[in-house]
Design goal:
heterodimer, A: 263 residues, 65% helix, B: 139 residues, mainly alpha
């Protein structure tokens, strides 16, 4: 795999694909932080509130790291930040690239209780860990380096989910466990859709082969799915919840991560 | 002579509401003088320990001395976390209004790390208080 470092001349097609994915990551990290901040309303206790606020700070930090790299590639990142800050509920799709799942109108209906907040980090975050984790080995070395840092913190978010879920059950007992079990499936649909359509067959993404050939994406959706399910089963087991069977992925929640879908 | 044009600062209402949510637990901006007593802070924070009924958690003055001492540490860490979070918000404001740059983002990373470490310490202190409360006759 050919790799590129800061300052290297990038082939035009490679540069376009790279910038597209990096913008989606940075803009979506920031929008994700905004959604997590909105979820502060559900924090039931002080420690939950402070730990969730910590997560908000981390998500914004992730966006800043990737935007810094995009600035080196000539992108006006301040305009992207300002668009997200000034229009958090509905940022202009022509100015920022936020995955559907992190847009308020798609995110908010998934949440009506702290249990949802705890489960998001337990059930969906493993998909982000698997998906973004691949960028640690991608062909653009500055981005790979930044994602090593981000991946470590995303693992921390997984730990937050496990902590928050266990504590909910500690305070709420069996009734809380039952309530949470009923909420797992909706988040698993999002998690399963996070890494994209299969790499083969009639449902395959048109762009996947190009990203894969460039070494921008280094794992196939099928590999990421296996990684996700392994992480998910482990974390659900840690909190005493069962993994639902027969859940269909919701690919629409991540629409936008592909170059073809963005245009 | 051309008039000096001062650009209005962009505000970040979502982050401000984040802090408002923490206000119910006594969050204070770094530049606000400390006026609350430990008893007031404890009253706001004791939900952290109420497995069944918040009213069952004793008021600060009724805590056994060892629990009081641990509670004071827990409260102090929360106050330190508030100060660091306030510093994070200042860093966000600088990035938003003066532009993204490597030094500003690294400055933010430093204060963010400090805030996050403090939240971890706060969590550990909460667990220590909870352990003492479980053992105390008043629990």
């Amino acid at each position: 795999m050919k790799t590129y470092d800061k300052g290297d001349v990038l082939p035009d097609d490679y540069r376009t694909a790279l910038i597209n994915l990096m913008c989606f990551q940075a803009d979506s990290e920031y929008a994700g932080g905004q959604r997590v901040a909105e979820n502060m309303q559900y924090a039931p206790r002080p420690e939950e509130a402070y730990r969730l606020s910590k997560k908000v700070m981390e998500e914004f930090g992730h966006a800043y790291y990737v935007w810094n790299l995009l600035a080196d590639l000539g992108i006006d990142v301040d305009a992207r930040l300002q668009e997200l800050v000034m229009h958090p509920d509905n940022p202009d799709k022509a100015k920022v690239n936020v995955i559907n799942g992190f847009r308020k109108q798609n995110w908010a209906p998934l949440f009506d209780h702290w249990h949802d907040v705890a489960l998001f980090s337990t059930v969906v975050t493993p998909a982000a860990v698997a998906f973004l984790g691949q960028y640690r080995e991608c062909s653009y070395l500055p981005w790979a380096k930044v994602n090593t840092r981000i991946h470590k913190e995303e693992m921390g978010h997984l730990a937050f989910g496990v902590w928050a879920s266990k504590r909910s059950m500690e305070f709420g007992g069996e009734a809380a466990r039952e309530d949470m079990q009923g909420r797992v499936a909706k988040f698993m649909r999002v998690g399963l859709g996070f890494y994209g359509r299969p790499s083969t067959g009639d449902k395959k993404s048109e762009m996947f082969d190009i990203y894969y050939e460039y070494g921008i994406k280094v794992k196939k959706p099928e590999e990421l799915q296996a990684e996700y399910l392994e992480l998910l089963e482990d974390r659900l087991g840690q909190v005493g919840l069962e993994m639902p069977q027969g859940i269909e992925p919701d690919y629409d929640m991540r629409v936008g991560y592909e170059l073809d879908a963005a245009e | 002579m051309r008039p000096v044009v001062t650009q209005e600062k962009i505000k970040n209402p979502l982050l401000e509401s984040n802090l408002d949510r923490l206000a119910r637990y006594g969050f204070r901006q770094a530049n606000v003088a400390e006026t609350d007593t430990a008893a007031t802070d404890w009253a706001r924070l004791k939900g952290d320990f109420a497995r069944a009924d918040e009213a069952a958690v004793p008021e600060f003055d009724q805590l056994p001395p060892a629990v009081q001492e641990a509670a004071l540490h827990y409260i102090a860490l929360k106050r330190e976390a508030d100060t660091l979070l306030s510093t994070c918000e200042t860093a966000h404001g600088e990035i938003l209004n003066q532009g993204l740059s490597v030094p500003r983002v690294e400055d933010y990373a430093v204060v963010r790390d400090a805030y996050e470490d403090k939240v971890e310490e706060f969590g550990a202190a909460r667990a220590a208080v909870a352990g003492l409360l479980d053992q105390s006759p008043a629990a």
